[in-house]
Specification:
Strand content: under 5%
Helix content: 40-55%
Low-confidence stretches: 1-17, 114-123
Radius of gyration: 18 Å
Oligomer: single chain
Order of helices and strands: HHHEEHHHHH
Structural class: mainly alpha
Length: 221
């Protein structure tokens, strides 16, 4: 299969050309096929965002190049395009009586018990609106950094769902959600130290811990 250009090869909006738009449209269509295939293959347990990225980096897809998870300007375009595809796929599946659960910790396809008349959520979904707006793919590095700073300070973070909270707690090794946030911080620091590359860990493990911690931080906030 021909390898598509790296999804991290962004260009500022001012430099965008017709050729860029054609490539982006084709790349999204390719990602739609690959993402649906991987999620169906994963079954009801689904995949985390990180696991899906890794699957799309491997054969036969090779749709995403290497990603430095500690650099927002490299991580953002990969994350944005992936979630653009996920929300597009969710809308498509809804018309066939299927639902797509979208969370960085768990992405999965399941059957819907009821179907809305248009197959879409009945209320405004701000995250859906954000990710379906392709102009957000071409944000400047400064804007991306500010958005990340706002996220970590809690200004723009949606309250996580209970399943996401439970899964995040499990990722940090809790059998039950602690009543206070302090034990979460202590456990997170300990696990991050254990997962450090100098101690035999890797950045992917740290990324999973960061994701779980951010979910619980939002929950307690």
């Amino acid at each position: 299969m021909t390898t598509s250009p790296n999804a991290t090869d962004r260009k500022p909006v001012a430099a965008s050309t017709g050729g860029d738009s054609v490539w982006l449209s084709q790349h999204i269509q390719h990602l739609l096929v690959a993402v649906e295939h991987e999620l169906r293959a994963a079954g009801p347990d689904g995949l985390s965002e990180l696991d899906l990225i890794k699957a799309l980096q491997r054969q036969p897809w090779q749709l995403i190049g290497s990603v430095n998870y500690h650099l927002p300007d490299q991580l953002y375009p990969v994350h944005f395009l992936l979630f653009h595809v996920l929300y597009t796929l969710r809308d498509q599946l809804a018309t066939f009586g299927e639902a797509l659960s979208i969370s960085p910790l768990r992405l999965s396809i399941r059957q819907q018990h009821t179907i809305a008349s248009d197959g879409l959520p009945g209320e405004e979904d701000k995250l859906r609106a954000f990710y379906l707006d392709l102009s957000k793919y071409h944000m400047s590095d400064d804007t991306i950094q500010k958005m990340m700073d706002d996220f970590w300070s809690g200004q723009s973070r949606p309250r996580p769902t209970q399943p996401d909270v439970s899964e995040a707690a499990s990722t940090l090794g809790f059998s039950a959600l602690p009543e206070q946030f302090a034990p979460v911080k202590q456990r997170f620091r300990k696990l991050v130290m254990q997962a450090h590359p100098d101690r035999g860990g890797d950045t992917e493990a740290i990324q999973k811990l960061n994701g779980a911690f951010s979910v619980l931080k939002a929950h307690y906030a």
